[in-house]
Amino acid sequence: MTLTIDLVILFLCLGVAYPGVTGTFMDKLASKKLCADEECVYTISLARAEDDYNAPDCRFINIKKGQLIYVYSKLVKEREAGEFWAGSVYGEQYEDQMGTVGYFPSNLVSEQHVYQEANKTIPTTAIDFFCE
Q1: Which residues form the domain of 70?
Q2: Chain CA centroid to CA 61, Å
Q3: Is 72 in contact with 25 (CB distance < 8 Å)?
Q4: Does residue 48 lie in a domain region?
Q5: For the segment 26-78, what is each residue's pLDDT rounded down to a tens digit?
Q6: What CA–CA distances, in Å, run from 45 to 22, 80, 90?
Q7: CA atoms 30, 35, 41, 42: torsion sign
Q8: Residue 17 domain-assigned?
């Protein structure tokens, strides 16, 4: 009996100290993406927003006209779907750290500088569309 109570207390303490990760796997926007490297971690380009964009759900990021965006991957367009890129908004207050990464329509930005060519085609995974 005492062992059962001790185990219950231990599990309760662990649940408070180490809360589970919560989130949602959203629908995939594409089955492939273009990246600069096999791990898809290097910046492809720097783009400037030509218009405002309000994110429709947690897979996307909000963008304001004139903001600079680091582009990390470009989803390969499928059928009638839109063409989306993944990136983070550059801000001077966060210049030493990466902002929230999310998708945005590629037709709302113009590339200002290409750092590396996006010539690696990689399958997307469920985690590419995971929302916290």
Answers
A1: 24-131
A2: 8
A3: no
A4: yes
A5: 788 899 999 999 999 899 999 999 999 999 998 999 999 999 999 999 999 88
A6: 31, 25, 12
A7: negative
A8: no
